Amino acid sequence: SYGVWSHNSFLVTGTGNPEDLVFASEVTGGLPSYGNEITNVSLVAVPEPATWAMMLMGLFGLGAVMRTERRRQSSAITV
């Protein structure tokens, strides 16, 4: 191809559910097929803060249940 290639990197954060990510090229002169290639697109899902909070609450709940069971077992043995 003709011209100079340039590397661009963008960080996009979704704010709602669902989100549409659309790529569009813009003809700035010349033929529209020159300079409008998009490659190596990757999307990464990141858990929302509410998801982390629910996971932590679940782990604390499991810890509380395990602690209660351990106390019940130790009191049954000593009686």
Please give a structural write-up.
38% of the residues lie in helices and 0% in strands. The protein is rod-shaped. By secondary structure, the chain is mostly helical. It has 1 helix and no strands. The longest helix has 30 residues, at 49-78.
In short:
The protein is mainly alpha-helical and 79 residues long. The chain is built from one helix and no strands.
Largest sheet: none
Q: Number of DSSP helices?
A: 1
Residues in β-strands, percent: under 5%
Summarize model confidence as the mean pLDDT: 76
Unreliable residue runs: none
Question: What is the H/E string?
Answer: H
Keywords:
rod-shaped; 38% helix; 1 helix; mainly alpha; 0% strand; 79 residues
Write the layout of secondary structure elements.
Elements: H1 49-78
